[in-house]
Amino acid sequence: MKYLVICISTFLFCTFTSSNGAPSVSTLSACLTKQGVRNFTASQSTSFSAVLDFSVQNLRFTEAGVGHPALIVLPTTTQEVQKAWTCIRQGGWASRVRCGGHSYEGLSYTSSAPFVIIDLMNMHKITVDARGRTVWVEAGARTGELYSAVAAASSNTLGLSAGTCATIGMSGHIMGGGYGMLSRKYGVAADSVLEAQVITANGTLINRVSTADPDLFWALRGGGGGAWGIVTAWKLKLVSVPSTLTTFNVWRTGKQALTDLVFKWQNVAPQAPPELFLSLYMAGINTGGSADVGASFYGQYWGSIEETLALFNKIYPELALTASNCKQGNWIQAVANIAGVSGPSALVDRQQSSRNYFKAKSDYVSTPLTKVALAGAFDVLMKNTKGWIIFEPYGGVMSQISSSAIAFPHRAGRLFMVQYQAVWQDDTNSPDSELIGWLRGLYSYMSPFVTYTPSRTTYVNYIDLDLGDSVTAGKSYFGSNFARLVKIKARFDPTNVFNQPQSVPVSM
Ligand SMILES: Cc1cc2nc3c(=O)[nH]c(=O)nc-3n(C[C@H](O)[C@H](O)[C@H](O)COP(=O)(O)OP(=O)(O)OC[C@H]3O[C@@H](n4cnc5c(N)ncnc54)[C@H](O)[C@@H]3O)c2cc1C
Ligand SMILES: *[C@@H]1O[C@H](CO)[C@@H](O)[C@H](O)[C@H]1NC(C)=O
Ligand SMILES: *[C@@H]1O[C@H](CO)[C@@H](O)[C@H](O)[C@H]1NC(C)=O
């Protein structure tokens, strides 16, 4: 495809119709209108920036030089997605599908080639069958609104295992796995998928992927977003949640004390009963002009505050958790506490109140880090107060599910997942490159201590363009499942119509 239309003015948009197949916005608009797809906005429209911005979670991709779409279409039904897709394909456009826009690298709303976004935000209907313990959820729904609907429809008896932040889009999340507070008990969000509906490259809707194409169904559950057609709805299995949970958060400081505490954490959190989820956030801090480390030990336990304290007293007395660090409530209250929102009613807010510029990287650890290794990581953290490391425990049921059960591969043997983040508000004081360089240095420091299968093992939902092209990155994200994913991709989408820079390729 040649793109012969060149925009020479930033004010005039090219509405050039050409006969050689170069993408034209006016042709696309006309097609959408003719097909009865009413809600779309082109880049010269006054409503365009607000629609584009609504689901931009990483402000790094609002900066100059980032490729924006020529048009955003906001379908309300599966049929409209199909019609929009047909117009987009006929017009020769590249495309991106956007659900919650939480891609760490902005891959649902940026591209270097002229492109169109299919934004699913208007498709978020949730239909709970509490008796059957299932839910049908349209592909544009977010975690928080789904959690709320499930809790409300089941009188707080059912829940769902997925991520901790309330604004994550369910589709991108499931397609990368989806890890959260219930994962040691019930697995990742992708483990709970019972059915999916998908639109393929030629515009066909597959209504029941699980039986129509079991390989594709396998790939959808953890094989990464942006490679496998357009998912329009998911059917998920719901899980029992207790009537009383305790969430806790305790802050400790001091490099020496934390070296000991975190060393011990590695033997506590991954081995604990699956009803306990004990995460760890570690950051460089500045106390009275001198650099140090602070850490938050946070999570939840299925039980009262008293039962939580009794458990910690037995397995982790060094943490000295007290009742004042704890809050007791039902599951949806726990979800709101962990998400850091004001209360359960705020879980339906589809946009996060504060957004940042950030860059992140991930790892897995299978052998506990030595105290020397930990102290070295703290030294790197202490050089910067705009970055942190998060450890999230694995173990529990995660170790019992086969690593080839679904495309998401990270199972037995992983003690915990590591996430490194550099986060900032504006780029005036420290340029992006400085913070990103620091983050890469931290990742490089950690290289001797982490898991390789055989590539350095990473989590596709913490997508990281530093990992390289789709083959190199794919080996890192999917390990031993990568070869099967490539085969499925080659059969399902041989011309790689559905792609982003690190989507599963058609050959290795
Ligand atoms: C603040 C924040 C908190 C997070 N917390 C967690 C957490 O607790 N646990 C965890 O596991 N992860 C977490 N993540 C990571 C998150 O799971 C991934 O970023 C996820 O891919 C986001 O999904 P999305 O739909 O919001 O993103 P999008 O940017 O909309 O999509 C991500 C990718 O999926 C594709 N895609 C989206 N919808 C569809 C569809 N319907 N059909 C086909 N392709 C589609 C997109 O094209 C893109 O390639 C967090 C991310 C952020 C920013
Ligand atoms: C299109 O969808 C957006 C997002 O929901 C909404 O704000 C807007 O009002 C809709 N426009 C039309 C014309 O329906
Ligand atoms: C469209 O693609 C699907 C799945 O790849 C295939 O089963 C179907 O036969 C194709 N239909 C047409 C009309 O080409």
UniProtKB/TrEMBL annotation:
Keyword Iron-sulfur: no
UniProt domain FAD-binding PCMH-type: residue ranges: 65-241
Cofactor: FAD
Keywords attached to this entry: FAD, Flavoprotein, Glycoprotein, Signal
Pfam family membership, one: FAD_binding_4
GO molecular function annotation: FAD binding; oxidoreductase activity
Domain of life: Eukaryota
Signal peptide: 1-21
Entries under Gene3D superfamilies matching the protein: 3.30.465.10, 3.40.462.20, Uridine Diphospho-n-acetylenolpyruvylglucosamine Reductase, domain 2
Matching InterPro entries: BBE, FAD-bd_PCMH, FAD-bd_PCMH-like_sf, FAD-bd_PCMH_sub1, FAD-bd_PCMH_sub2, Oxid_FAD_bind_N
Protein's UniProt keywords contain Signal: yes
Family membership: Belongs to the oxygen-dependent FAD-linked oxidoreductase family.
Protein name: FAD-binding PCMH-type domain-containing protein
Organism: Ceratopteris richardii
